[in-house]
TrEMBL record:
Family according to the record: Belongs to the ABC transporter superfamily.
Matches recorded under Pfam families: ABC_tran
Entry superkingdom: Bacteria
PANTHER family tied to this protein: ABC TRANSPORTER, ATP-BINDING PROTEIN
Source organism: Roseimaritima ulvae
Chain ranges of the ABC transporter domain: 2-232
Enzyme Commission code(s) on record: 3.6.3.-
Stated name of the protein: Putative ABC transporter ATP-binding protein YxlF
Keywords: ATP-binding, Hydrolase, Nucleotide-binding, Transport
SMART domains: AAA
UniProt-recorded Gene Ontology molecular function terms: ATP binding; ATP hydrolysis activity
Gene3D superfamilies: P-loop containing nucleotide triphosphate hydrolases
The keyword Coiled coil is assigned to this record: no
Length: 320
């Protein structure tokens, strides 16, 4: 969907992007990075809203940066900052965006209602937008980005300021758009939980440079076959028994075990070891690498950057 190479951008003495070469495939890609890492600048560069000093590529098959105007017509953009025209109601705002995108008045209004229903904006659509709460404003920006039915959506921090229920609903809408409506989505965030929830790919920027670009499936796959086992009660006897078989066992923060060198299809051997050691297995599954740990390691070169990533359920529920 998007492929650019050698993109650099400076604001005065600040190097916001440094020789960024990146591809965003179809599906949902998380654009991750701590504050100031260049996420918004990359997005603005792709849309021609920030002039780049170097770089070229294509967006939706159109040459970039040469055809940024045509590119903008085909992209739905949810900016990080508030963007509304005071005095307009919600429905007028979204219908106005539809008209700016070339939809005739009646069709634009019909489409605005349809998309506001999808975004769960009820009677509030008839209120002036400056009276909206933060959550409502996020939904309004989302509706404005979607109203012209673009194939590519670029969402800059769409869940910022949302309470847990609203965040869940927003992520669910994003997943539906990709799954049911075949939209490709670039989701910029510093919230790892959002990336884990809906993304298939992840790109990570730190200090304006690409530090990671891969599918989540690849990142989560351990380099060696590994089983993840949770037992009831004390696991010491089981750990000792498995180590005597020549396998490395790592005890996780939540007391569960990762056993290296066991093929995930060969569960029988783990059941036998548990029986030998008198241990009761509560849960047995192929192990996955912890995304939190991967992202933390990537950002760790800059301790301040690692601190700014927001983790979430994976970290707190003890899985790793
Ligand atoms: N208009 C501007 N003028 C000067 N410096 C800017 C401007 N916009 C961004 N920067 C700087 O460029 C760098 C990258 O900023 P950018 O907003 O792209 O990062 P970000 O990853 O989107 O951060 P955040 O998560 O806080 O939104 C930062 O050092 C920022 O201060």
């Amino acid at each position: 969907m998007v492929e650019v190479s050698g993109v650099s951008k400076r604001y005065g003495t600040i190097q916001a992007l440094s020789d960024v070469t990146i591809a965003f495939p179809p599906g949902i890609t998380g654009l991750l990075g701590p504050n100031g890492s260049g996420k918004s600048t990359l997005i603005k560069a792709l849309l021609g809203l920030a002039r780049t000093h170097q770089g070229e590529g294509q967006v939706l098959g159109m040459p970039w940066p040469r055809d940024v105007r045509a590119i903008r017509d085909s992209v739905g953009y949810l900016p990080e900052d508030d963007c509304y025209i005071a005095g307009l109601t919600g429905i007028e705002s979204v219908a106005f965006m539809a008209q700016l995108s070339g939809l005739p008045g009646t069709e634009g209004l019909r489409r605005a209602h349809e998309i506001m229903d999808f975004c769960d904006i009820g009677e509030e659509r008839y209120r002036e937008v400056e009276t909206y709460s933060t959550g409502m404003r996020q939904k309004l920006k989302f509706a404005q980005a979607l109203v012209h039915d673009p194939p590519l959506l670029i969402l800059d921090e769409p869940t910022t300021g949302l309470d847990p229920d609203q965040r869940k609903a927003m992520l669910s809408r994003i997943a539906t758009l990709a799954r049911t409506h075949q939209k490709s989505i670039i989701l910029s965030t510093h919230i790892l939980h959002d990336v884990r929830s809906v993304c298939q790919q992840v790109v990570m920027l730190v200090h304006g440079q690409v530090r990671l670009s891969d599918s989540l499936a690849n990142l989560q796959r351990p380099s060696a076959p590994t089983m993840h086992v949770t037992v009831s009660g004390d696991s010491d006897a089981l750990v000792a028994h498995i180590e005597r078989q020549g396998h490395t066992v790592t005890v996780q923060r939540d007391g569960s075990l990762k056993i290296e060198g066991v093929d995930p299809t060969d569960t029988a051997v783990v059941w036998k070891w548990a029986a030998d050691a008198g241990a009761a297995i509560r849960r047995l599954q192929p192990a996955e690498n912890s995304l939190d740990q991967i992202f933390f390691d990537v950002a760790r070169a800059e301790p301040a950057a690692a601190e700014q990533l927001s983790y979430g359920p994976e970290a707190s529920d003890g899985r790793s």
